[in-house]
Write a structure and sequence with these properties.
Largest sheet: 7 strands, parallel
Strand content: 15-25%
Oligomer: single chain
Number of strands: 27
CATH class of one domain: Mainly Beta
Shape: globular
Distance between the termini: 28 Å
Radius of gyration: 22 Å
CATH architecture of one domain: Sandwich
Structural class: alpha/beta
Length: 520
């Protein structure tokens, strides 16, 4: 999408076995006796099972009844070009692996960039069901609900998404209603794609109006947002809404801006609320904390806060420095402390900008190298929706780091990377959720770093080094958790794939195992 952002290692097989509850995901394959709920109850409690730890979450996730009953909402921006499967082929041979992640894919179209993408969704099995696309989207909805997401804002870049009954837009409406009628869809005409074509925007909005999955206010108004709404003036939007009103469709407009403060006054009279696209930097995520109060007190509007995990665009050699997990956590705290009404995760599935919260992997199809933001989202979404900080019941360690440092020699095939916002960081982060004090340890390339941590949340960062980091939690000099990051760090000269990859790869572990997610 265009615009501003937008040594001793335990493995699952060597650890005590863990029984966990499963919904759309199979969480941490550590047990020979995994408890599974049926699809009729797809969002079971994903927190701790009595006597066991969950390697993905440090607390007991509230029930979906609690989450959906909140007046607050957590939406995730759904970018439809990147579903779980594009072509229903085995993952190792599908379009992601053979084309998007392959430097020679799509007839060398992205050769200079080293491939169109650096990440992809988790693998799913080939499905003989003729409605496999809807089935896969149902999986995505269940995945989202499992981490506190209560709906999707669905980006629509072309009219065919409205007019074609087999489009991704219509599939996601079907999937949401089938999985849980409380999971709601907010249509988002993308004005960078649709431009000033008022007829197309009217048709896109009208296409969702009859769906029970579309989000409506208690007074019946259809909630609509739009990406980069200010590309068209308020008078243009007012005309669109008059046409919809003539069709019996009353709209509650929550435009998404690239800089909402400069547009709020002009759009005040036609808006129910305001939304901002956000910037995936720790500083940018912090300075927005007061924005909801301005929307409330100055304009009497609701405010949808952006929460961005990271932003790296291989296609354009652009990077916003996210500071490992810093931008994501700061944005969530801005939403919580700033009393935002809604949150928009930017994004659920835009792999072309590396901004996805959805669990991700690479061509290796490893299921435990891109789970960090997704699992962190469960903690912060539960906090936001319930207005109560979750109680940490057991220790979970998360890591975030890159394959190579910023500006490493030999990367980019002659192209230079542009740092758009923030100051480049080359750190390994161990993010600890601790039930009691302990000592955190990171070992990499013969270097060992330690930090005393209190109970609660501690971010421990050390300089990046070539090698494969090992992470540990100690108490009384004894290991409580020890595990190794799954991604090898290279300094550039020893990188077997000399292309820019500024992705923050991530994973987690608890006493009983390493978190490994499956999409089916």
């Amino acid at each position: 999408m265009n615009g501003t952002p937008r040594n001793s290692v335990r493995t699952c097989s060597r650890m005590p076995l863990l029984a966990i509850l499963v919904t759309a995901l199979t969480l941490c394959a550590l047990s020979t006796a995994v408890h599974s709920d049926s699809n009729e109850n797809p969002v079971a409690e994903l927190g701790s099972v009595a006597g066991d730890d969950d390697a993905c979450l440090p607390f007991t996730m509230p029930s979906k009844d609690v989450l959906f009953s909140s007046a607050r909402k957590v939406f995730a921006h759904y970018f439809y070009p990147f579903p779980l499967s594009i072509d229903n082929k085995p993952a190792a041979q599908d379009y992601y692996n053979t084309q998007y992640l392959n430097p020679n894919g799509e007839s060398n179209k992205w050769l200079v960039q080293g491939g169109y993408l650096r990440q992809r969704p988790l693998a799913v099995a080939v499905n003989s069901d003729p409605n496999w696309q809807v089935v896969n989207m149902e999986r995505e909805v269940r995945m989202a609900i499992a981490r506190g997401i209560t709906g999707f804002t669905v980006d629509v870049m072309s009219l065919d998404q409205a007019t074609n009954a087999a489009s991704k837009l219509h599939h996601i409406l079907q999937a949401a209603q089938a999985v849980d009628p409380r999971f709601k869809i907010v249509v988002m005409p993308d004005i960078d794609g649709l431009g000033a074509d008022a007829s197309a925007v009217v048709q896109v909005i009208a296409a969702v109006a009859s769906s029970p999955a579309a989000y409506r206010l208690s007074d019946g108004r259809l909630v609509v947002t739009a990406f980069n709404a200010s590309r068209n003036p308020p008078s243009w939007w007012a005309s669109v809404f008059r046409q919809l009103n003539a069709e019996g469709i009353k709209v509650a407009f929550v435009p998404t801006f690239l800089g909402w403060g400069a547009q709020a006054s002009a759009f005040d009279s036609i808006s129910y609320g305001f939304a901002e696209w956000g910037i995936a930097t720790p500083g940018g995520s912090s300075i927005i904390r007061n924005d909801p109060r301005v929307a409330h007190n100055t304009y009497d509007k609701i405010y949808m806060m952006p929460v961005d995990p990271q932003q790296f665009r291989p296609k354009e050699f652009l990077l916003w420095e996210a500071g490992n997990s810093g931008a994501f956590r700061n944005a969530w705290m801005s939403a919580i402390q700033g009393e935002a009404d809604w949150v928009q995760l930017v994004t659920w599935s835009d792999f072309s900008e590396s901004s996805q919260v959805e669990p991700y992997t690479d061509a290796s199809l490893a299921a435990d190298i891109g789970t960090g933001y997704y699992n962190l989202n469960g903690y912060y979404a539960a906090w936001f929706l319930t207005r109560q900080q979750p109680v940490i019941t057991h220790d979970v360690l998360y890591y975030f780091y890159r394959r190579s440092p910023y500006g490493a020699p030999g990367t980019g095939r002659g192209k230079s990377l542009t740092l758009k916002k923030g100051k480049a960081e080359d750190d390994i982060e161990l993010l600890a959720f601790l039930a009691a004090p302990g000592v955190l340890k990171i070992t990499v390339a013969g270097h060992t770093f330690e930090q005393v941590a209190m109970a609660g949340i501690t971010s421990f960062k050390v300089p990046s080094h070539s090698g494969q980091p090992t992470f540990a939690l100690l108490r009384d000099g004894a290991d409580v958790v020890v595990f190794q990051g799954r991604i090898q760090i290279h300094d550039g000269s020893d990188d077997p794939s000399p292309v820019h990859d500024m992705t923050y790869w991530s994973g987690s572990a608890a006493r009983d195992g390493v978190c490994s997610l499956q999409a089916n």
